[in-house]
TrEMBL record:
CDD domains: YjgF_YER057c_UK114_like_6. Signal peptide: none annotated. This is RidA family protein. PANTHER family: BLR7761 PROTEIN, YJGH FAMILY PROTEIN. It comes from Rubellimicrobium rubrum. SUPFAM superfamilies: YjgF-like. Gene3D superfamilies: RutC-like (3.30.1330.40). InterPro entries: RutC-like_sf (IPR035959), YjgF/YER057c/UK114 (IPR006175).
């Protein structure tokens, strides 16, 4: 395994079952896996899309912080939602999260691994010290 690759886990029950980690830091980049709003400690999934979005953003932000970055370093984001009508209620929260550093973005309508999930968010970020 190359020494410049670091893996970050959030101890989600899905990580070992599926065979992935929350984030990978490699060659100045941080790749954060698709993240839902599931509480990793309790397994609870909020009912409202806004609450799921907020939870997913917190999980992503924590992974980025562990990698030495922040939401301001995100350059690409992908939003996956089973129902595209659920996207608009999240816009104010997403706009606030990325503030003056909006990333390139894509919204995809697709089914998610658990039918209770209403949003999944995946980001790519540049390490601040990557130059």
């Amino acid at each position: 395994m190359p020494s410049d690759i670091r893996r970050i886990s959030t101890n989600s029950t899905w990580e070992p079952r599926v065979g992935y980690c929350r984030a990978v830091v490699a060659s100045g980049w941080i790749f954060v896996s698709g993240t839902t709003g599931t509480d990793h400690e309790t397994g609870a999934i909020p009912e409202r899309v806004e609450d799921q979005c907020a939870s997913a953003l917190r999980i992503i932000e924590a992974a980025l912080q562990e990698a030495g970055a922040s939401l301001a370093d995100v350059v690409r984001v992908r939003y996956i939602l089973p129902d595209r009508a659920d996207f608009e209620p999240c816009w104010p929260m997403l706009s606030a999260a990325f503030g003056g550093n909006p990333p390139a973005a894509t919204m995809i309508q697709a089914g998610l691994i658990d039918p209770r999930h209403k949003i999944e968010i995946e980001v790519d970020a540049r390490c601040p010290d990557a130059g």
